[in-house]
Amino acid sequence: MSKSRRGGAGAPPSAASALMFGPRPGTGAHSPAAQLQQAVTLLRQGQSSQAEALLRALQHHEAARFDALHLLGLLHLQRKNATEALRFLEQADQLRPGLAPLLNNMGIALRELGRPQDALACYERALASQPDYVEALVNRGNAQRELGQPEAALDSYASALARQPGHPQALHNQAVALRGLGRPQEALTAVRQALAGRPDYAEAQLTLGLLLHDLQQAGEALAAYDRALALRPDHAETLNARGSALEELQRPAEALACYDQALRLAPDLPDALANRANALEALHRMDEAVQAHDRAIAARPGQAGLLANAAALLARLGRHAEAAARYREALAADPEHPYAEGSLLHSLLHLCDWQDHAQSVQAIEQGVAAGRRVVLPFHFIAMSGQAALQRRCAETYAGDQHPGRPALTAPRATPLPAGRLRLAYVSADLHDHATAHLMADVFEAHDRERFELWAFSIGPETGDPMQQRLRRAFDHFVDARQMGDRELAERMARAGIDITIDLKGYTRDSRPDIFAWRPAPLQVNYLGYPGTMGAPFIDTLLADGVLVPPEDEAHYSEQVLRLPGSYQANNALAADSPAAAPSRAEAGLPAQGFAFSCFNNAWKLSPTVFDTWMRILAAVPGSVLWLLEDRPATSENLRREAAARGVDANRLVFAPRCGHAAHLARQPLADLFLDTLPYGAHTTASDALREGVPVLTCRGTSFAGRVGASLLGALGLPELVAPDLAAYEATAIALAHQPERLAALRERLLAQRAASGLFDPLRFARDMEAALLRAWEARTA
User: Fold this and answer.
1) Hey, what's the torsion of the CAs at 585, 588, 589, 591, to 10 degrees?
2) Using CA atoms, how far apart are residues 768 and 763, in angstroms rounded to an integer?
3) Half-sphere exposure (Cβ direction) of 598: Cα atoms closer than 13 Å
4) Phi–psi pair at 543, nearest 5 degrees
5) Are 760 and 573 contacting, i.e. CB atoms less than 8 angstroms apart?
6) Cis bond upstream, residue 678 (ω within 30)
7) Of the N and C termini of the chain, which has fewer Cβ atoms inside 10 Å?
C-alpha cells in the first residue's frame, strides 16, 4: 500500500513582508498619514481588529484611500481570507495601476484562491515594473511550479538568487521544484542552504524531511520532522509526514498517534486519512482499517490511489468480491493506476471468476511487454507462464518500488576464522508455516563448522512449537519485526553477514528494501518466490536443472545456482507425526469411486486446466475432484463452472482447511493429485508425495510451473510429467482406468521416497552449502 507524505508546496510569502509604509508628512497625530502609520503598527503587533477599524475609516479619505485599501488587502491575507483580500487589492490597483508590491500581493491572493495562471500574470506585471523585485521572482516561480512549469520555476528562483544570494525562500522553493523533477541530491543542497541562513524555517525543515524520506533515510527524516514540529507544533501535514516515517521504521502505533493528531487539526486531510488506514492494518486492527479507508475515500471521492489501497486491504482479508469492486472503481478513475489491473484479475482468480479471463491475461501480458506497471510480479506468475515476460514484469516492479540504495556506512564485523561464513536467513514465516515445515530440518542440518547461522525474523512472534524449535536451530535468532529496512540492513552488516538468503521474494509480508541496502556481499533468492526478482541487489537464484535449464537463463536476472536433484528442501519422512487418518466419509468423499485431488489455492486454478479436469471426470464415471475449500463464493463459482461443462457439481468435493498434521493424514485418501498451470503445486505437491499419493503434472514454461516436474524427477517418476495438457489428460484417464498401473506407481513412489534424497534434509543441506560456497568463491575471487 502506498503512503502519502505530500508537503513541499513552498512557504507562502508573508503578507507582512509587503508592509512597506513608512512615516509620511502630516499635520498632526490625527492626520491620515499618522493614522496609516498607527494601523501599520497595530498590524505588526497582531492587533488586526483595531487596525481594520482604523483602515475602514481611512479608505474614504482621498489622501489615504490607496494605502488603506492596500493595507486592508494585506490584513485579509494574514487572516487567510483571500477573497476579501483580492477585493481590496483590486480596488487599490485601480487607483495606482502597476505598483509592484501591490501586484505581488494580488498574485498571492490569486494563488490562494486556486488561480495560479492569473497569479502569474500579476507577478509578470510586477516584474515588468520592478525587474529586481526578489519576492515577486520567488512567487512567480511558485506559480510556474503549480502550473506544471518546473524548469521555468527554477529559472525564476535562480534569478532571485542572483539578485539576493542565500535568500531562504528562493532556496527552499528551488528545493521543492528540484524534488518534483526527481533531482533529490540537488534539492538537498538547496534546502540545507536555506536552513543555514534561516534555521527556524519550519517549512524548509519539512521539505528536508520529505527529501530524506524519499531517499529511504527514514530515521534522518524523522529528526527533520521533529525539528519542524518544534517550530510549528500544530502543523497537520508535518504530523502526517512524521507518521509516514514512523511506519517506514516499523513503528505503526506511534505513526497512528501522529495521524490521529493531524486529523484533530485537519479532520479531512486526505493523506492522513489514508495513512491512518495503513497504520491500523499494520497493527492488525483490520475492521478499523477498512472503515478508515472508507473515510479517506469519502473525503476524496474518485481518487484512484485511495480506492486501490482499500481494495488491497479487502483482498488481504479474503473479501475478494469487494476488492474487485474497489479495483474497478480505481481503474474507472485512472485506467493506468499502477498494478490495479493485475490486482483486479488476481482477486477474480481467488473467486474463480473467469469471465473474460483470456482477454484480461492478454491485455496484462501486453502491458508487461510494454514496460507498464500493470501487475505485481507474484500475481503475474499465476497468470502467464512466459518466463521472458516474468523477468520484464519483475524488473519493472523492482525499478519502480525497490530501487537500489546508497552504500551502507555501518562498520562490518571482522570475518570469522578458518574460512567460516556467516549465513543469514530472512523471512516472515519462521513459525508454524509451510516454509518452516519445509526448512526446519535443513536449518538444523547445516554444518556449523563451515557456517555461523543467523535468522532475522520479520514476521509475527507466535511462540508456537515450530517457532520455539527454530529459535534453537540458529546460532542467532533476531526478532526484527520492529526494525526499519535500513536499520535491519545495518544490523546485518554490523553482524558481518556474508551470505543472506531471502525466503520471501515478492510474496506477502516480504521486505525487498532490506536487500536493496546490500547488507551482505552475496544475496540469494530462494524458496518463497518461484521466479526471478529482476533486482540488481539479488545476486543468485537457487534452482535446479528442471526449473531453469541453461537455455532459459536469459529469463533470470540472477546467477542461477543449480542444486542436484530438486531445489525444494523438505523435512525428513520420519519427522512427521500425522494425525489419525480419517475415513472417506469423514473427509466428505463417496464410499466408492476414483478420487482426483488438488489442494492448490483457488487462485492457481485456470479455466484451461479446469476444462481438462472436467473432461477427465466425464471420462471416469463415478470419480470426484477433491479440492481445497476456499470462500463460499469460490466454491459456488466452481460448481457453476462444472455444471456449465456438463459435469454434476456434486462431483466437486471441498476439503476444509485444517492443521498441517491433519492435512497430511487425509492425503492418502486421494488416488491421484492433479497439478495446475501456469503456477503449479509446490508444498502441496511434496505433501502429497510424502504421503504416497502420485502427482500428475504438466511441465510448464517457467519456474513456477515446473516444480512438480522437479519433484517427480528427483523421485525417478518421469512418466508422471506430461509434456502438454493433452498428454496430461490422457494419462489421468488411463491411470484411473488401470488400477494395477496406478498401484505399481504408488509402490515405486513409496519405495523411492527415502532413496531419492528428496526427503533427506542432511543431504540437501550439504548440496546447498556446496552451491553457496561456489557462489561465494566466485563472488570474492
Assistant:
1) 30
2) 9
3) 24
4) -145, -155
5) no
6) yes
7) C
Instruction: Name the strand (E) or helix (H) holding 561.
Output: strand 559-563
Q: SS3 helix, strand, coil % of the chain, rounded to 5?
A: 60, 5, 35
Contacts of 422 (CB under 8 A, 6+ apart): 413, 416, 451, 452, 454, 495, 496, 497, 498, 499
CA dist list (Å): 486 to 1, 210, 212, 645, 693 = 19, 17, 13, 53, 45
- Per-chain mean pLDDT for the chain: 94
Q: Can you tell me which residue has the cell 483486479?
A: 344
* CA gap 520, 537 in Å, rounded: 10
Q: How confident is the model at residue 21 (pLDDT cuts 50, 70, 90)?
A: very low
Q: What is the pLDDT of residue 55?
A: 86
What is the per-residue pLDDT for 577? Answer: 57
Q: Identify the CA nearest to 545 among candidates 534, 556, 530, 560.
A: 560
Cβ count near 439 (within 10 Å): 27
Q: How far apart are CA 397 and CA 533, in angstroms?
A: 9
Pairing of strands 695-698, 652-655: unpaired
Question: Residue 471 carries which DSSP code?
Answer: H
Q: 23 pLDDT band (50/70/90 cuts)?
A: very low
Residue 369 corresponds to which cell in the numbers above?
A: 511487454
Residue 691, all three cell numbers: 504421503
Cα–chain center distance at 113:
35
Helices 168-180 and 150-163: crossing angle, nearest 10°?
A: 160
Query: Whose CA is closest to 308, among 327, 332, 281, 294?
Result: 327
End-to-end CA distance of the chain: 41
Residue 325 burial (CB count, 10 A): 17
Question: In which band, very low, low, confident or very high, does the pLDDT at 781 lie, cut at 50, 70 and 90?
Answer: confident
Separation between Cα atoms, residue 229 and residue 238, nearest integer Å: 7
pLDDT class for 440, splitting at 50, 70, 90? very high
- Is the predicted pLDDT of residue 421 greater than 50, yes or no? yes
What does residue 399 show for φ and ψ, rounded to 5 degrees?
Answer: -65, -35
Distinct helix (H) and strand (E) counts, the chain = 34, 13
Element (H, E) at 222: helix 218-231
- Which position has the grid cell 496406478? 742
What residues contact residue 56 under an 8 Å CB cut-off, 6+ apart? 68, 72
- Single pTM value for the model: 0.89
In this prediction, residue 24 carries a pLDDT of: 46
- Cα 223 to Cα 501: distance, rounded to the nearest angstrom: 32
- Structure confidence at residue 60 (pLDDT): 78
CB 698 within 8 A of CB 453: no
* Kind plus residue range of the DSSP H or E element containing 422: strand 421-427
**How far apart are alpha carbons 704 and 383 in whole angstroms?**
11
pLDDT at 3: 58
Q: How confident is the model at residue 562 (pLDDT cuts 50, 70, 90)?
A: very high
Q: Which domains does the chain have, with CATH numbers?
A: 30-165 (1.25.40.10), 302-401 (1.25.40.10), 417-563 (3.40.50.11380), 584-759 (3.40.50.2000)
**How far is Cα 592 from Cα 669, in angstroms, rounded to an integer?**
11
Integer Cα distance of 257 and 706 in angstroms: 47
The DSSP secondary-structure symbol of 697 reads: E
User: Please, are residues 690 and 664 in contact by the beta-carbon 8 Å criterion?
Assistant: yes
- The whole-angstrom separation of Cα 677 and Cα 681 is 9
Sheet strand arrangement including 672-674:
652-655, 624-628, 595-598, 672-674, 695-698, 721-722
Which positions ≥6 away from 743 have C-beta within 8 Å?
none
Interacting residues of 404 by C-beta distance below 8 A, sequence separation 6+: 516, 518, 536, 537
pLDDT, residue 32, reads 79
Reading the block at residue 479, the C-alpha cell is 526478532
